[in-house]
Amino acid sequence: MPPKELVIIANTGDDETFHNLHICPDIDTVMYTLAGISDRDRGWGLSGETWNAQEMLLTYGTNPWFNLGDRDLGTHIRRTDLLSQNFTLSEVTTELCEHLGVNQIIAPMSDDPVRTRIKTKNGDLSFQEYFVKYQCKPFVKGITFSGSELAAPSSIFLNGLNQARALIFCPSNPFLSVDPILSINGVRKSVIDFKGPKIAISPIVNGKAIKGPAAKLLSELGHEVSAVGVAKYFRDLCDIFILDNKDSHNLNAIKKLGIEARTTNTIMTTEADKISLAKFVLSLTKTFHD
């Protein structure tokens, strides 16, 4: 697939300001991964990272619970500088990608600020407080997206929706990664009305999340903790639901929801696993069009 035919829309509900710098965790993870410089062991940040600035902050008596590596800081400094010059987040992201040699199109869901807020028994938390500071431990009662009612989709996002041949929901947390995007004005309706194939990949395998708190949130928010539970969430949003081979016994239950269901290996342990899943998804888009 030619790189420019892939448009990746990143959730920016996780964005936060630390040390007066604009941090975009989801954008940066995608950007670093496609640039081939991500830390694959940690799953975030840069490979070969050093932590001298973080250690100096500790020396000064601060308690920086959100870790920022030295090289990573360069990204945030440059982003913040460009944003202060009134460039949009989309424009800034495009420039950063060009310098890193990323040829695919990465764009924020919106150039307007939207922030995920987690309602817990101990009060409201920002996403990063919940996810990083408290390690997803608090019981979640609800999730809101501050600013979404005033936000518009980024122009790249809108163009992508209008020109795309297919929409693919990666195996991400539906509440923390997908819902923020759908909360923006008009996006949910545009997805529902999209005429091409809409394919979702389950982040739950054999009743467990591959990574992160997806299973925990499904339970706490009153959903079935299974691939079927995720399929119910996507009922109005996708035509084809992909679940792992280990969940093949759920095929009929998902088909009863009015969604086509397919199984394959969705656990991406190796590079070959990732390529295989990508090819499988693309093959389904061609079958749909045929």
UniProtKB/TrEMBL annotation:
Key words of the record: Magnesium, Transferase
Record-given protein name: 2-phospho-L-lactate transferase
NCBIfam families: F420_cofD (TIGR01819)
Taxonomic source organism: marine metagenome
GO function terms (MF aspect): LPPG:FO 2-phospho-L-lactate transferase activity; magnesium ion binding
Classification via InterPro entries: CofD, CofD-like_dom_sf, FbiA/CofD
Transmembrane residue ranges: none
